[in-house]
Amino acid sequence: MKNLIIPMLIVLMMFQNCVPANKGLIPDETAQQIFTPAELKGLDEMIRFVDSKVAENKSLTDVNQVYRAYFDQFSSSVSGGKMFPALLTDSVKFKFLETLGKESFSSVWKLDDHVQMVRYKDTTLTDLHDFKTLGINNQGKYLRYLKEIGKSDSLYSHLYKSMETAGDIPPSVVGWYPAQHKEIDFTLFKNRLWAAVFLLRMGDPLEERVEKYLKEKSLAADKF
Fold first, then answer.
1. What is the number of domains present in the chain?
2. Which of 2, 27, 161, 189 has the fewest Cβ atoms within 10 angstroms?
3. Which residues partner with 118 through β-bridges?
4. Could you tell me if residue 189 is inside a domain?
């Protein structure tokens, strides 16, 4: 028996080396067909970034518990008629998104950093330089991905049709989606990717952003 121990250990080690390493979240077949490996890498980075922000200041470790706890707060605020605070500030969000590869970014997002006209209170402001606005890229691969998975998933069919009609994530989805979180398995790629897109798209109210932008510009001008 003792003579068999070493060979058995060697076989066990060889077997362990053959077992694929746990790579965490695995893109589904549809995602692998639509996105390139480089784009999938960027999307994974985006998901991990949002994961870290959602889990901040929480002792929970299970991904479903973490996201459901967050969306519990979100949905209760929305149902109560309140604005839920953005997951992170615009400056932090844009700084992160700038680190994504161009292809990964454009597969989901479109960015306008030179807004020609913004309605602010009772005034129309024009020619706002460096005022960034983030939206869903209607020509991007992500919307195509939603369409494909929506063929077998009613939640994503609804999201795709709503976004295709509105040209972005409409207010109706902002009010509807968080209430669905108890039925969602956040260990799945499609669900975590959508949660990341949804939460990154949510920002501070436009009026607050413009007011902050104008204050920063005013302070910068006072220095000269």
1. 1
2. 2
3. 125
4. yes
- The answer to whether residue 23 sits within a structural domain is no
Confidence (pTM): 0.77
Q: Which residue has the tokens 């799945």?
A: 188
Domain carrying residue 209: 62-218
Contact 190, 76 (CB under 8 A): no
- Asked if residue 39 is part of any domain, the answer here is no
- CA 173, CA 88: separation in Å to the nearest integer? 20
Residue 115 CA to residue 118 CA, distance in Å, equals 7
Contact between 147 and 33 (Cβ < 8 Å): no
